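Researcher: We plan to redesign the surface later, but first we want a full-length starting point. Tokens attached.
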């Protein structure tokens, strides 16, 4: 890497794209999930919070979804809060909570374009499940992608079927593979989510998941620290589970992950953060800035960087 930057952060990539700092506005558009409404399960994945990983998102209102704000109102409210800190920022509308392609296509179209029609919005990010990308949804995403900067986030979490089944994720690896292929064949950027510290997984298993997703031409990757939260089923199933014994253990694993991620893949997340009031374990995970500072310091101390292991052994 150049200029002292040791990994390809999405922040740096977006600054190149738009010429200025770019901020994501987290929007809760009122979607549910097939793993909550009974289509493939109830209650969500075992690790999911009650709000579907979107506790910090704003809630939206539409004539078909029970919400509190419109997309436009949510955008305006968040920009108002952020504009003093970043007066010249660009903004991306981030449809974050639950499954943001899980609705009739006319509803999706209206919500996406309500965000994109706002002149302050420079692009859109859509988080979804790989099993919620039917042909009509893919056609809509392809249409949006033609004229707007966009990426789609897929919550894979792990490649290991035993873990996936135990966590009640509700889809298999081949479904993810098909979704990636469908999106990339249409020129759509893909960002994959993985969780580090799922119950029963060794560090080698987690590294296998990283290697697997990076063998495909994805745009970016999110590495989430496994957080046990009070509103999750995991907190009931395994109330004493602690994913990592210490920050140092977690930082060490993240470094190993970064070293096997190709340099062209953008890094969207290296830890996870939930409101402290919901956090059970690991008790230190709310210290997001500390964790990120330790990762950067350790990269510098080891004189290593994203993709370093690939340079020394391309077979990785």
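Model: Full-length starting sequence:
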């Amino acid at each position: 890497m150049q200029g002292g930057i040791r990994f390809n952060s999405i922040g740096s990539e977006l600054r190149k794209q738009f010429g200025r700092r770019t901020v994501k506005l987290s929007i809760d558009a009122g979607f549910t999930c097939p793993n909550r409404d009974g289509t493939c399960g109830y209650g969500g994945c075992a690790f999911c919070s009650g709000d579907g990983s979107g506790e910090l998102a704003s809630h939206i209102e539409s004539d078909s979804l029970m919400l509190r704000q419109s997309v436009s109102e949510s955008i305006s409210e968040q920009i108002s809060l952020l504009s003093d800190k970043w007066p010249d920022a660009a903004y991306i509308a981030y449809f974050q909570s639950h499954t943001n392609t899980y609705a009739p296509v006319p509803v999706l179209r209206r919500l996406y374009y309500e965000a994109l029609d706002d002149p302050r919005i420079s692009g859109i990010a859509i988080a979804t499940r790989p099993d919620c990308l039917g042909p009509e949804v893919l056609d809509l995403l392809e249409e949006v992608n033609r004229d707007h900067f966009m990426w789609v986030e897929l919550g894979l979490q792990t490649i290991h079927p035993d873990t996936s089944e135990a966590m009640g994720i509700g889809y298999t690896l081949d479904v993810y593979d098909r979704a990636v292929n469908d999106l990339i064949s249409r020129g759509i950027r893909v960002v994959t989510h993985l969780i580090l510290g799922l119950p029963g997984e060794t560090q080698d298993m987690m590294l296998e998941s990283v290697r697997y997703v990076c063998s495909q031409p994805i745009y970016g990757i999110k590495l989430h620290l496994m957080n046990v939260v009070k509103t999750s089923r995991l907190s009931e199933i395994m109330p004493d589970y602690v994913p990592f014994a210490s920050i140092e253990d977690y930082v060490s694993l993240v470094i190993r992950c970064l070293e096997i991620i190709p340099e062209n893949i953008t890094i969207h997340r290296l830890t996870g953060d939930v409101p402290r009031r919901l956090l059970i374990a690991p008790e230190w995970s709310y210290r997001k800035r500390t964790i990120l500072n330790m990762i950067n310091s350790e990269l510098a101390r080891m004189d290593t960087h994203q993709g370093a292991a690939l340079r020394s052994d391309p077979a990785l």
